[in-house]
Amino acid sequence: MRRYPLIKKTLQNGSYTIKFLKSGESGNTHLLTGKIRHTNQSPLIRTILRNRFEIVKLLGRGGSGDTYLALDLDLPGQPYCVVKHFQPKDSNPDALPISKRLFAREAEVLYQLGNNYDQIPRLFAHFNENENFYLVQEFIDGHDLTEELIVGQRLSEKTVFNLLKEILEILVFVHQHKIIHRDIKPQNLMRRHSDKKIVLIDFGSIKKMSAVGTNATIIIGTPGYMPSEQAKGKPKLCSDIYAVGMIGIQALTGLMPSQLQEDPNTEEIIWRDKAQVSDSLADVLDTMIRVRHSQRYHSAAEALEALTATQIISPSSQSTEPNTNTDDYLLLYKKFILLLGIGLGTITSLVLIVLIYTFMFTSTSLPNNPIQLKFKSFIEKFFDLTLVKTDIPIAKSPNNKRVCNSNCAIAEDINR
Ligand SMILES: Nc1ncnc2c1ncn2[C@@H]1O[C@H](COP(=O)(O)OP(=O)(O)OP(=O)(O)O)[C@@H](O)[C@H]1O
Ligand SMILES: [Mg+2]
Known about the structure:
Layout lengths: L4 H8 L2 E10 L2 E8 L13 E2 L3 E9 L3 E8 L7 E7 L8 H20 L8 E7 L2 E7 L3 E3 L12 H20 L2 E2 L8 E4 L5 E3 L6 E2 L10 E3 L6 H4 L5 H17 L7 E2 L6 E2 L8 H10 L11 H14 L8 H40 L8 H26 L5 H15 L1
Antiparallel strand pairs: 1-2, 1-14, 3-4, 4-5, 5-6, 6-8, 7-8, 9-11, 10-13, 11-12, 15-16
The structure holds adenosine-5'-triphosphate and magnesium ion.
């Protein structure tokens, strides 16, 4: 079990995300992201904000507020959108400005990134109404990755490779803007139904890196997907890489990060024996989740490059794929069907020949049956023609004339 004493305690209380806001003399301040509670007990349901966004349903309750599904009444067809209501759960007055800053930053980043990248939701509006802050964003019609990463179910290497590649491609874009997401986890990755692409959501934890690097900051993240430097308040771009690596390991092993043991000496996570994976992909994943951040890939671009190289170096790694096995079985099955067809065809022909022969020549048949007689004469003509044709090249040679004559005599015998 990874060592996050405070977080472990929180997990026992039923929450899965902790936002450690501040350390002070009076104690530490945390924001908790709990599981969805009483989803229909929200006073905002059916409220129309700005005379435009009608709240329909509660989607989730997070540390900074509630997230709702809403209708955009201004647009043709009144499409869905997502409304985030800023309502920090922490009663500590010190936490409020931090939460406010994070909420404002989420809007800023969605506006900056979402408008330019198809796999990040677009920002539609950001406003204050009756002393409440709201953020309206594009609704992603899909499901989150918790529905694909099922405990006890291992995904194939090829599926995991594609998953990692797609997440890293989004992160390359995010990291290019010097933004650390800080909360990469299955709940914040949605698979859009229309094109099956992954969309990264929840920019409520992001950190913008300053020109001089990242100073010590508040601690935000989710246990299991959060590396040690992030847990110490010093996140780096490669902290997001750690989270992606953990998602890959979760997919390959069918185990939650909290179910994995760590090496007591090195503190590295032990997972290889619980997965069917090629050495090349396992090496990339191990580099992604190194305890010491300096030993990890420094950015998403670097990790993506190493990941794609595994396909070039080790195409044989694909041989462990159940998909490849399925193809082999399909080919074998096709061959079997073909051979079976040929065999059955041959047997049917033989049976037919035997039946015809019996029909023609058995004593039980009538001697003057017209069909039988016609068939008999046809067979006789056929033999006759065949014999004459065979003789032509032989008869051309004067030495072979005798052979021709004798064969013709046989043919004449048959005709009589
Ligand atoms: N753009 C979106 N499209 C579809 N569903 C969304 C979208 N944004 C959020 N959701 C749904 O709402 C849930 C909660 O939203 P989100 O992850 O942004 O906030 P949170 O984790 O509850 O809060 P916090 O920002 O405080 O961490 C998500 O897990 C997802 O199911
Ligand atoms: Mg979230």
